[in-house]
Design a protein that fits this description.
This protein has 189 residues and is an alpha+beta fold. It is built from 9 helices and 6 strands; from the N terminus they run H-E-H-H-E-E-H-H-E-H-H-E-E-H-H. Strands 1-3-2 form a 3-stranded antiparallel sheet. It has a 3-stranded antiparallel sheet with strand order 4-6-5. Strand 2 and strand 3 form a beta hairpin.
């Protein structure tokens, strides 16, 4: 099969699906092996990035999606008249960070780490599609487990959760000491 036709088929699949499509599914639809399909997609990714185009292909945990380039957002906002910018406050970012690094995690576990109720933050992150329910814990009351979504990966420019920054162990110890000092100050009041 001609390379240009294969690229056109991949483009059609990604455009039509509108969400990330697993590499194996794409290869199966093309009757090609996974590695050849991966090489073709990566070649297409280079072509899209190298040219002045409004779209590109992103990779999300061995799946691919056709997306609008971030540089085109202002133009799209002008045509849609509905700017969709979610503001992530410090509270939301803190909660999202806990979920990203500790997932799957329950709301109670999040609250134990943060030291305050997290209902509003968790609900907002679900509304923004940055986190979702991943199931239920096998424990009394069967609490909901939360984890990040593909939208989280897209929003933060990550290919997978393995791409999350690694925390410096010394910095973690500093945070623990600060938290203990704050707790002691509150107890002294």
């Amino acid at each position: 099969m001609e390379l240009k036709l294969i690229e056109a088929q991949i483009e059609a699949i990604l455009f039509t699906m509108g969400e990330a499509v697993e590499l194996e599914r794409i290869a199966g639809a093309l009757d090609h092996d996974v590695e050849t399909t991966r090489k073709i997609i990566h070649n297409m990714m280079d072509q899209y990035e190298g040219e002045e185009r409004g779209i590109h292909i992103i990779e999300l945990e061995d799946a691919y999606q056709l997306c609008t380039k971030q540089s085109m957002y202002e133009t799209i906002i002008k045509i849609t008249h509905i700017p969709k910018k979610h503001i992530l406050t410090d509270v939301l970012l803190e909660t999202l960070s806990i979920i990203a690094y500790k997932q799957p995690i329950t709301k109670l576990q999040i609250e134990a780490i943060r030291g305050v109720k997290s209902d509003h933050a968790v609900n907002k992150l679900v509304e923004y599609n940055l986190i979702c329910e991943m199931g239920r814990m096998d424990a009394p009351g069967r609490p909901i487990l939360f984890g990040t979504t593909e939208e989280f990966l897209r929003s933060f420019g990550l290919q997978s959760l393995e791409a999350l920054p690694i925390m410096n162990p010394e910095k973690i110890e500093d945070f623990k000491l600060e938290a203990e000092e704050e707790m002691q100050l509150q107890l002294d009041i």
